[in-house]
Each structure stands twice: as C-alpha cells, then as structure tokens.
Specification:
By secondary structure, the chain is mostly beta strands. The protein has a single domain, classed as Thrombin, subunit H. Strands 2-3-4-7-6-5 form a 6-stranded antiparallel β-barrel. Strand 2 and strand 3 form a beta hairpin. The chain is globular and about 30 Å long.
Length: 121
C-alpha cells in the first residue's frame, strides 16, 4: 500500500492536472453485491478524494457511483486509487482517486456540477 504523509516537512509535488473543488458528497463503492458508502471531500474533472481512516489498496480499480446534487441519477464510473494520504496536522486520512472509462453522460454531469459550484463562489 502506498501512503503519503502530507504533514511531513518539505515540498510536495502536485500531480493534479485540473483544479479541484471542495464538496460534501456521498460515493458508493460497488463490490459485487456489496455497497460501501464513502464521504467525498473534493472533486475535479479527473478525480476525487475520499476521506477514510482505513487505506485502500493503491492501484486498485473500483466501481464508484457519485450522488451529485442536481444530477438526474447517480453517475457511475470506474476509478483507480492513486495514493492514500495522511495529514496529521489536519487529522485527515483518505485516498485520491482518478477517473477511468467515463461515459459522456458521466463526464458532462461532473463538469456541469463543477462549473455550477465555481459560479456560486
């Protein structure tokens, strides 16, 4: 498992290629017949962050459904766990995910939600 401690001293390299927005959303991780609910705290056109105490397996591909306000239905996508993060100063643990294989409806739904949130700020 890869884990990055963001509270360590020294510079960190930013890997994101698109801006992220702070959100309070639910994501459903679908594993066969099982569904696990997670709290999403930031979102971009390329990925998202789930706050979670127990780490995910880095590199793992998961099926995620996002419940975005204003979307007619939950948006479904495969996503890859990029890294697990820990920031002791902020008391934050979780994992960064990268979207994979998004259909046009999901991509447009995420972009529309991000644009709407940016306009409200």
């Amino acid at each position: 498992m890869t884990q990055v401690d963001r509270s360590a001293e020294g510079p960190t390299t930013e890997k994101r290629t698109t801006p992220r927005i702070g959100v309070e959303l639910w994501a459903e991780e679908c594993c066969g017949a099982d569904v696990y609910f997670h709290r999403v705290t930031n979102l971009s056109r390329d990925g998202f962050f789930i706050e979670k105490k127990l780490p995910f397996q880095a590199g793992k591909t998961v099926h995620i459904r996002l419940d975005l306000p204003g979307a007619p239905s939950k948006l479904s996508t495969r996503s890859r766990v990029v890294e697990n993060y820990r920031d002791r100063h902020a008391n934050l643990r979780g994992a960064g995910f990268q979207f994979l294989d998004m259909d046009a409806q999901t991509r447009e739904g995420i972009a529309a939600y991000i644009d709407r949130m940016d306009a409200e700020e």
